[in-house]
């Protein structure tokens, strides 16, 4: 659930809350919503990097 929360906090520019979620799940890119992307690791990394 933290992955989905992090995914939806990013477009709302709630970066501080988003960073907290990414710190809890960092490194696990095979969860929703990342696995629906063509490149899940790249998608996860790009959103995580933009929030930090």
Task: Describe the overall structure.
The structure is a single chain. The longest helix has 12 residues, at 40-51. The protein has one domain. It has helices at residues 2-9, 15-25, 40-51. It starts with a helix and ends with a helix. The protein is an all-alpha fold and 52 residues long. It is globular, with a radius of gyration of 10 Å. The protein has three helices and no strands.
Features:
single chain; mainly alpha; 3 helices; globular
The helix content, as a percent range, equals 55-70%
Strand content: under 5%
- Determine the N-to-C terminus distance: 20 Å
With helices defined by DSSP (H or I, 4 residues minimum), what is the helix count?
3
Q: Which outline best applies? A: globular
- Mean of pLDDT: 88
Structural classification = mainly alpha
Unreliable spans are none
Number of strands: 0
Radius of gyration equals 10 Å
* Total tally of structural domains: 1
Largest sheet: none
Order of helices and strands: HHH
């Amino acid at each position: 659930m933290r992955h989905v929360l992090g995914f939806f906090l990013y477009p709302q520019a709630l970066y501080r809350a988003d960073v907290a979620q990414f710190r809890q799940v960092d490194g696990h890119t095979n969860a929703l919503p990342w696995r629906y992307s063509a490149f899940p690791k790249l998608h996860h990394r790009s959103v995580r990097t933009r929030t930090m």
